[in-house]
Amino acid sequence: MTPSVLTNPRAERVKAVRALGRRSVRQRSGRFVVDGPQGVREVLRFAPHTVLDLYVDGAALDRHETLVQLARDANIHVHQCDPAVMTALVDTQHPQGIVAVCRPVDVPVADALGDDTGFVVVLAHVRDPGNAGTVIRSADAAGARAVILSDASVDLYNPKVVRSTAGSLWHLPIALGGDVAELVAACRERGRRVLAADGAGSTLLPDADLSGGHAWLMGNEAWGLDETTRALADDVVRVPIHGHAESLNLALAATVCMYASAEHNAQGPAS
Amino acid sequence: MTPSVLTNPRAERVKAVRALGRRSVRQRSGRFVVDGPQGVREVLRFAPHTVLDLYVDGAALDRHETLVQLARDANIHVHQCDPAVMTALVDTQHPQGIVAVCRPVDVPVADALGDDTGFVVVLAHVRDPGNAGTVIRSADAAGARAVILSDASVDLYNPKVVRSTAGSLWHLPIALGGDVAELVAACRERGRRVLAADGAGSTLLPDADLSGGHAWLMGNEAWGLDETTRALADDVVRVPIHGHAESLNLALAATVCMYASAEHNAQGPAS
What we know:
The structure is a homodimer.
Chain A: E1 5-6, H1 12-18, H2 23-29, E2 32-35, H3 37-46, E3 51-57, H4 58-63, H5 65-73, E4 77-81, H6 83-89, E5 98-102, H7 109-113, E6 119-123, H8 129-142, E7 146-149, H9 159-164, E8 174-176, H10 180-189, E9 193-197, E10 203-204, E11 214-218, H11 227-232, E12 235-238, H12 250-266
Parallel strand pairs in A: 1-4, 3-4, 6-7, 6-11, 7-8, 9-11, 9-12, 10-12
Antiparallel strand pairs in A: 2-5, 3-5
Family (chains A, B): Belongs to the class IV-like SAM-binding methyltransferase superfamily. RNA methyltransferase TrmH family.
GO molecular function, one term (chains A, B): RNA methyltransferase activity
Pfam families (chains A, B): MRM3-like_sub_bind, SpoU_methylase
């Protein structure tokens, strides 16, 4: 059987994928795009049932043979396409020749919160796609139970967020929406202490109580957490700044906090 | 006295500043550009003697009055310029109306290594400007004694590196050059243990010996440290990955390692 090859960059199918670069189209259609072999591999490994279509150009078909086979085994429709079609599919500077169209994977907030063990991360009004994606990747690495993005945050399915997660989008539960006060209340109801991470915090990270289930509340990259939001937390914790730096950026501060929690978990419950 | 205002975007002086976007021109002239109020403020605070000229447009002159006064007090020539000249001075998407032309601030490797206390960071072949700048910012925040960039690393005075340091460029000693093997040998001669940070490390970060003076050796963002380089180190340390993430990016891994050292320092010498 000779597979048919997509050759027309102006085909309706191609335009429909390209349009998924816009948030409104993603929301209306309930689809988003995963661009590049790393993301495609992780969604095929961790959530193959959410993959609707796979697009590959000739070079990628050879280079990523195993991935393509994985998709075929999962009965996913694999469309071979010309490089010109690939360029038209996604708005990327360096297309990598392999693109998947997928359904969302976010879960309800209640499911993300799970029980009261370990730690979760709540991102309040995080707007920069790279920061949001990087924090999700760090949360995965540090062993967070889940990540929750408050409303007024960047869209989880923004192509830059998806890329910055480096596949972690499919590795842990991620929930969307709710205002920050509601999310804090939900964490508390589940028996999680809420620790706001903020440069204005009075508790230094090494002195913070990381025993028991908790939630890290992380603020916007530019203005942090406002006073009202900080007041909702059980404690406001700051990463110590030893030199003359004004602060750490959001992703770095979040990662240092989460690894402190991970280290505490690894040591087991305090005696 | 009415200050003269630069109005011609094609003036030789303006072209000469713009040309500092190129590494070869920076090296030949021994000058580089600091773009935006944060960098300008930090260089004026920490190394005013290295500032040769300050360029401000009308809006920035009002908005950053204190900065401009600081420059005038230090006898730095302040050039007021039209917005069109500002746009011509630097290759930035969003010019912030204030630009300084400065002399380098790097120090010899021997000075950066200092004595054998605390920790330093050696960046081996780090190529991405944002990563290099961010690690310098983190090193500052974590209290590193110095940062050393091996040869074949990105240019410290690349505008994107300068911007990503968020002012930390002037907060701690930074040295340039030397191949990695020489730098490792120099660290050892000063009594510093060398810890390579690498996902292939056999020692987990919480188990690493961070007592006494040491140097963190960080590899390239894409390929890490090669086997030969890892073999030079006293130990190869990896940040634990608890979830399904493949790795942390360079800046995040480096920050977690440096904060582990900082925390160890804060607790004082082990009993």
